[in-house]
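Reopening: Transmembrane 9 superfamily member still failing for me.
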Amino acid sequence: MAPFLLTVLQVLLALTFWIGIGSGSSNRYNAGDHVPLFVNKVGPLHNPSETYQYYDLPFCRPEPVIEKQETLGEVLNGDRLMSSLYELKFREDKTHLVLCRKRLTSSDVARFRDTIAQDYYFQMYYDDLPLWGFVGKVERDYFGQEEKHTKYYIFSHLKFNVLYNADEVIEINSFSDPSYLVDISENTETDVQFTYSVSWNLTSERSETRMNKYSQASLHPISQKIHFFSFLNSITVVVLLIGLLSLLFVRHLKNELRSSSIGDEEEKKEVGWKLVQSDVFRCPRNVSLLCAFLGTGTQLLILIIALFALAFTGFLYPYNRGMLLTSLVIMYTLTSVVAGYTSASFHSQFEGNKQKRSVRLAGILYPVPFLIIVSVLNTVAITYGATAALPFGTIVIIILIFTLLNIPFLMLGGVLGNRFGLLEFQPPTAVKRNPREIPLQNWYRRKLYQLFLGGFVPFIAVVLEWHQLYASLWGFKIYTSPGIMLFTFAVLIFLSTSVGIILTYIQLSGEDHEWWWRSILCGGFSAVFMYAYGVLFYLRSDMTGFLQLSFYLGYTALFCYALFLVLGTISFLASLLFIRHIYRSVKLE
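Support: Ran it again with your exact input. Result attached.
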């Protein structure tokens, strides 16, 4: 099974990297060449999911507006690049060039005023480099503690500062000139003259490093301090858990195995996990669902590993428009063969002729909740007219990818798992026909307590870094430290594995042999804590509105559900290996 997964991962990375290389281009220009500036979207600063097309606001617009051809990932990311009236020719300075003269109606003024009150920003792209600016500003006059007057101003002049090296664009920044303001505080028609200036400056920076400035946010001293404390927190929890394992758990288990090998019958009766050796390998309930869970979890684990590999190779970087989502679509589609293979392979160990049900369940275990939530969110986005709403053509493409590629790959994996998968499972001990009755458990062996402990310990070790991840996804803080994230993920896997083994051992010591699903739930319960922390993060943030709330809760739920499947699978596999080891070590008389 391991060689098969490794082969899939290598093919996956090669194909994704090849597509990314093919989509990129090295742009070189001569002096005076036209370099198009595309306008993208506008939206409130504190609501990252609430974005609208640039020309939804009454800005100066060309006739006709030409939409840039976009990739699937760009559309999924909410990018809607369109042509503009700005002319930024390579290495040509311009001063106070008139973009257009526009008469704003009272409704246009009211619309601008509402957006300025919500701190609306705009985003543009120039030679694939992003740039931002604010639509306007608010000035409030106070008399004592009371607000007396509020003034709304729109920026009418935009400055572009472009850096170049030889024949390549290296960097671009935009500045809204505070000297050019138009008062739109009153609901009256207003004449506005929009202007812009362009200045070009030579730099020694090379084009290969022009995206590095977007990665410098993670090198800020405050961010480094947070990462440092997160590292200390994770190491402390890991060291304490290793100490617990070595001093209590491993030593106690070795003593029990030693007493078993000696044949001390009196001591053997005192050990609960030896009494259930004839029931511990009994076929679990809902075995098809269990195997589908393992298949989906393994698929998502391979996908996460592939993402880390792409990030370390520099393939994924901030504001590489849509490449992350494009990579996710490609990798999820191709790794469907892993889900089918793993589900069928595990099912063949229990019931040799019913793998098809496991494979079908693996095909709906994550995609169906995903499609339901995305459909609801898409309906909300359409209602608001946001760019997050998927066009009909994109929806058709997604459906075709799922039906023509995802499902066949899933079935192919099922066939391979049925023919070349794991051999039929041979338990180390014989399984009785009738299951042993489970005695009443102590409080620390009950399911709710074990679920809480299994989720809380891994979560508390990564909570600081998890906060940084939420701030990156929902707060415009760029997370560009794949090494730190990989370390955090490795700590999460190690703790989920260790805690899962310990809780499984405690459960078996209480003569409770129904460990299969318990080990999955204990391992995956960290994701429940992560989602709860996500709700707390939202309540403490400045995000507002139903659109942002629905997108935040919906996509955070999908993200945590995927993590639940991955960690539950890892915890189960670790518990299975542990149980096989200890029962093989028992000397049966």
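Residues 33-216 form one domain. If you still see a failure, please send the error message rather than a screenshot.
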